[in-house]
Sequence to fold (396 residues):
Amino acid sequence: MTAHDPGLFLSWDYEGQPSSQPSPTILEATFSRDELVQALSAVQVALGDGDLGWIQLEFAEDQTVIISAQNPTLAVRYALKASHSQKGVLKVSGRQLLEYTKQIPQNTLSFHAELPYRVLLSSGHSSAKLHLIQGHTSTHVQAAPSDSEVRIKGTTLAPWATSFKDLLQVDDTRFYANGALIWVEDNCLCAVASDAVRLAHVKLNDGIQVQSAQGGRILVPRKTWEEIIRMSGQHPEDEFCLKWSEGTLSFSIESPQYLLHSKTIAGLYPPYENAIPHKLTTKIQLSVATLAESIKRALIFADKSKVLQLAFDQNTLRLSCFTPGQKEGEEVIALDAAVESPFDVNYNGAHLASILSVLPAGQVELHWESINRPVKITGAVRPGLEAFYLLVPTKF
Fold:
């Protein structure tokens, strides 16, 4: 992420008027509304607050327009095709342009720029005028150093990235825990995420091409991860290239039209290996759908703490939630195999439900080393994707 001067902006005096008044340079362009909205939505994550956040439009050769934005931690660019009369670079309020483009009455937006002063927008019976933002800085978005590089299709990337998105934090006082830890190991793309009471360990071993694996382990921030999920979901057939470097604390994801470059989180991730139970003594197998539906009904009766009690006795599991002195609900599920001895354990029901939501079908297995230790939850996520989740017990 560097800055350069495209040489198309004039200086302005203290009264807000140009220091010289040459004839404006006219740039005409025509955009598809839907394609422009998609491009502006892709880069808006890097905008500043309010109307101060600006985007850059670079009208390049081959009728390509490169739209980009950046902030101190994130830079994004998106390329689209749009016919235009000549090359040029301009800056304008990103949020205003996005909101207007979303609401124009036709699928074509006419763009008449009078460089370096203003741009006139029109679509059907609607028109608008935006003043261009003056200054000698511009965005130049480049991919991260490729100490590690992985290529992966959107149809594979989206479910992997989604499988632990609910565990990423933005307000944990431990700044180094506010992201997803990713690395390459044995030609697999691995990730760990935790919110202190849940932990996800996910390994993708199919549908990836590992180009290099020297970049170490990095912590990708939540905002960047949300963009990975959004873009891979919108473009499932595109091939995405993930690049990162532990040494430079940088990460990027790139597709034919799109590039996001993000700083990563400095610091050591907590020693999550210590939380993983290894001497598992108890295993319960249940239907994902049956358990999820029972938890949903039971939580209707829970208080704000969302505590859910699981009571195992012979061939029966009883799920119960209550609000003291007001309401109580219970669900009974038959087990395929009897437990050796009865036991009760309490979890946050909403957290357990969120883990089950990424296990779309089939069976879920609950494993315990001790009821005072986290439960290990496994199930079929999708072919080529191995995952387990830990959930810490709670108290009434």
Notes: Confidence is low (pLDDT under 50) at residues 1-16.
